[in-house]
Design goal:
Low-confidence stretches: none
Number of strands: 12
Largest sheet: 6 strands, parallel
Shape: elongated
Strand order of the largest sheet: 1-4-3-2-5-6
Radius of gyration: 23 Å
Length: about 300
């Protein structure tokens, strides 16, 4: 897969089959569209393109938007590389670009720059300044400028009944199983391991403190989770606490992971954490001993759970 960070970077050598969207999550609904896209280029006469945008349009157009995203741009690239796509164009989204009329977008971007043969798009897709144009307008432009429009029907999308919004809500509510079902993979995020106060070490459960590098990445609901990661090409498992450590009265949000039977130094390393299941809410305990007893129970539950699952 070739990656371009602007529409102008892409120089077509063939006619192209294009789909457009934010593709946050690259979930099972997105994959249905991508499969159609790739099927249309299987004879090698055409090139496949996903045109997506960064930052997310809502972060640009809605100044007070607090939307958090399922994927960072790096994660989105990582997921799309697995699909068989020819080209990914990540175009900078700004207010100037958003001011293009629908016809300006079609003529200057799709026709002149991308050399489009066909667009595959959802039935509810809207585009142009103020999202003023719809699928019917796109079909008219297709007739005018000589490209086809293949519509993903409401029925096809409803069969999957999934959206990025539903997935965000599931993650925010701690429903990791539902989020993973909709995504078609286990939710994950990355960060740098930083030095904490080493409180876990004093009670027999040393933790790796994870610092997320992007402020727009969606973090699951506060609580305790079963997680996995790769270290030196080996799969390791553990428990993650997202929260404020109320037993210690800190009130500062943190992400801490205790890996089972693991003693390596992880400081300053980048790690990808896969979230497998939620165990419980974060709690305030009356004593350190009560906290330690609960963590022991959490560990027993986690190990038992992992024995029944294949990840």
């Amino acid at each position: 897969m070739k990656i371009f960070h602007s529409i102008k970077e892409f120089i077509p050598t063939k006619k192209t089959i294009v789909t457009i969207g934010t593709f946050d999550g690259v979930h099972i609904g997105h994959k249905k569209i991508i499969e159609k896209l790739i099927q249309n280029t299987s004879n090698l006469k055409f090139e496949s393109i996903i045109l997506t945008f960064f930052p997310h349009p809502r972060l640009v157009l809605q100044e007070k938007s607090d939307i958090k995203l399922i994927n960072t741009i790096e994660e989105k690239i990582q997921l799309l590389e697995k699909t068989g796509l020819n080209n990914l164009i990540i175009h900078p989204f700004d207010k100037q670009f958003s001011a293009l009329t629908a016809e300006e977008f079609v003529k200057t971007v799709l026709v002149n720059q991308l050399n489009v043969q066909k667009i595959i798009i959802g039935h509810d897709h809207r585009f142009g300044v103020n999202r003023s144009a719809n699928i019917d307008d796109l079909i008219i432009y297709g007739e005018k400028y000589g490209f086809d429009v293949e519509q993903i029907s409401a029925q096809e999308i409803d069969e999957i009944s999934v959206s990025s919004t539903k997935i965000r809500n599931a993650i925010s509510n701690g429903n990791i199983a539902l989020a993973s079902e909709y995504l078609g993979y286990n939710y994950f995020f990355s960060g740098i391991i930083i030095k904490g106060k080493q409180i876990g070490r004093t009670i027999g459960f040393p933790t790796a403190n994870l610092k997320i590098e992007t402020d727009y990445k969606l973090i699951p609901k506060i609580g305790v989770y079963i997680v996995s990661s790769f270290y030196n090409n080996s799969l390791i498992y553990g428990m993650m606490n997202i929260g404020n450590k109320p037993t210690f009265g800190e009130g500062i949000a943190s992400i801490e992971i205790h890996f089972f039977e693991f003693k390596e130094d992880l400081y300053n390393q980048k790690m990808e954490i896969t979230v497998l299941e939620r165990i419980r809410d974060e709690q305030k305990f009356n004593s350190i001993e009560a906290l330690k007893s609960q963590i022991e129970k959490d560990k027993e539950f986690s190990i038992s759970y992992l024995k029944t699952k294949r990840f």
